[in-house]
């Protein structure tokens, strides 16, 4: 009997190792979730022993899979996701290399819970401990804040008239520290704002009186009167570390607001703010929009999005779509497929603002996948030169020089095949037609659209996927 061994690196935290083991013990062993046989520890080295599943490389078999096999793959993946979500486990790293697949035996296994996170009400006790530690570390280090990022000393010397203005405009009823004190000032008329995920925590009021008063406040800070200067009193620092106090005072901006709201730019004040401490663990190309936008409340919908990305690979025959060097480019690639207006609307529901330089229409998923799949049908995966040409042609379909995806063009399928034939010497192939790729039902693209819903609150769940009409023959 064969076993798979996972050697945990010695730098891993013991609680994290225990959480991974508990996920495998409680949720594993059924419904395509990997189980555990034994666990050994020697000093700081830990080895997890699991059943061995001989599996195929997803990239290698992708060109050969039939539509029926693609259906079975995504069905069994969502079956595993439903299982772990019932235990309140967020996998956070769903991708083909973590969902083992034996094509001959029709066996599947979801593996690697090293990045797993607990959902509210999780049944995994050690995930609760990790959550409590994370929340506790944020709470202990939470300073008094004005903008949500800049620490402010408890005793601040201000002119008497300015003190009154500050008390009037920045009362405690307007302060909402949020997560780890990073939400900033969210009074009446305030909005959480971001430019492609970089937050700006300034107050933008629609009340003309408040705007006038705020301008007066800024003017008074820029031009203090003589009486104000005389009324200032020196307050000795209670902290013996004067260097730290001086540094804190110097980093505090002179203005409480900035002018970059709803503009495609970021001012110096916003650049100096610390980035939101939102979870973003995972693999590039599989992160959901709410992860790229640094949302704090992330749910099991992030795993469903990753399943949608895999389904997009299966339907289009292309691996992969949204891999990018950073979160902003990854978000831009998602916008290019799902549309700018749809992304802006969903981001607003998440408390974010996304700006686009120009409007990008949402792509027709069926047309996009059929064009890319057609390139695969005309190439021989065994021929290295043809595979290289295939990738180049797919990139021509997907991208322009500026990185945005091209607009949809209505073309005759036969014309496309002829143009591809003339572009490259290919081997005649008909196996894809026999494997069902010439007759993909609308239900498949309906499911893909639901899996890749930008808004996590309306995205389909793993449990709902299993009862989708596409899988009526698998239930």
Describe this structure in a few short sentences.
This protein is mainly alpha-helical and 475 residues long. The chain has 19 helices and 9 strands.
Q: Low-confidence parts, pLDDT < 50 over ≥5 residues? A: 139-222, 224-256, 400-433
Largest sheet: 3 strands, antiparallel
Instruction: Please count the helical segments.
Output: 19
Query: What is the CATH homologous superfamily assignment of the domain at 63-107 and 281-471?
Result: Transferase(Phosphotransferase) domain 1
CATH architecture of the domain at 63-107 and 281-471: Orthogonal Bundle
Range of strand content: 5-15%
Order of helices and strands: EHEEHHEEEEHHEEHHHHHHHHHHHHHH
The CATH class of the domain at 63-107 and 281-471 is identified as: Mainly Alpha
Overall shape? globular
The secondary-structure class comes to mainly alpha
Q: Strands across the major sheet, in which order?
A: 1-3-2
Average predicted confidence as pLDDT: 73
Oligomer: single chain
Helix content: 40-55%
Number of strands: 9
> What gyration radius follows from the Cα positions, in whole Å?
27 Å
Q: Report the CATH topology name of the domain at 63-107 and 281-471.
A: Transferase(Phosphotransferase), domain 1
- Rounded to the nearest angstrom, the distance between the terminal CA atoms is 31 Å
């Amino acid at each position: 009997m064969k076993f798979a061994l996972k050697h945990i690196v010695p730098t891993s935290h013991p609680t994290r190792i225990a959480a991974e083991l508990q996920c495998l013990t409680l949720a594993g062993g059924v419904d395509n979730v990997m189980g555990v046989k034994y666990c050994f520890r020697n000093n700081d080295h830990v080895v997890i022993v699991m059943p061995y599943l001989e599996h195929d490389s997803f990239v290698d078999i992708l060109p050969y899979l039939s539509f029926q096999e693609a259906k079975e793959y995504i069905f069994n993946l969502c079956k595993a996701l439903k299982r772990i979500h019932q235990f309140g486990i967020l996998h956070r790293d769903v991708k083909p290399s973590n969902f083992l697949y034996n094509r001959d035996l029709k066996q599947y296994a979801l593996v690697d819970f090293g990045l797993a996170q607990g959902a509210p009400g999780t049944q995994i006790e050690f995930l609760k401990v990790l959550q409590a530690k994370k929340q506790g570390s944020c709470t202990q280090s939470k300073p008094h804040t004005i903008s949500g990022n800049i620490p402010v000393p408890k005793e601040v010397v201000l002119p008497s008239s300015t003190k009154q203005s500050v008390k009037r405009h920045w009362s405690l009823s307007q302060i909402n520290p949020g997560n780890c004190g990073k939400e900033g000032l969210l009074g009446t008329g305030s909005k959480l704002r971001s430019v492609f995920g970089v937050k700006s925590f300034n107050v933008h009021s629609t009340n003309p009186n408040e705007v006038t008063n705020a301008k007066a406040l800024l003017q008074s800070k820029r031009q203090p009167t003589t009486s104000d200067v005389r009324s200032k009193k020196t307050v000795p620092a209670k902290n013996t570390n004067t260097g730290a106090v001086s540094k804190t005072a110097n980093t505090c901006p002179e203005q409480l607001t900035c002018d970059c709201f709803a503009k495609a730019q970021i001012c110096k004040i916003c650049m100096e703010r610390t980035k939101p401490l939102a979870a973003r663990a995972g693999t590039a190309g599989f992160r959901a929009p709410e992860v790229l936008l640094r949302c704090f409340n992330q749910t099991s919908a992030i795993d469903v999005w990753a399943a949608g990305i895999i389904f997009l690979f299966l339907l289009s025959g292309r691996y992969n779509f949204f891999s990018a060097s950073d979160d902003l480019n990854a978000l831009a690639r998602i916008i290019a497929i799902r549309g700018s207006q749809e992304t802006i609307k969903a981001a607003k529901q998440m408390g974010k603002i996304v700006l686009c330089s120009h409007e990008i229409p949402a792509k027709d998923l069926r047309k996009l996948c059929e064009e890319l799949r057609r390139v695969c049908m005309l190439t021989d995966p065994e021929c290295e030169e043809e595979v290289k040409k295939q990738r180049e042609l797919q990139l021509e379909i997907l991208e322009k020089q500026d990185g945005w995806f091209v607009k949809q063009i209505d073309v005759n399928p036969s014309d496309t095949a002829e143009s591809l034939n003339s572009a490259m010497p290919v081997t005649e192939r008909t196996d894809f037609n026999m494997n069902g790729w010439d007759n993909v039902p609308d239900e498949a693209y309906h499911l893909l659209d639901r899996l890749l819903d930008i808004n996590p609150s309306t995205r389909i769940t793993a449990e709902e996927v299993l009862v989708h009409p596409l899988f009526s023959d698998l239930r």
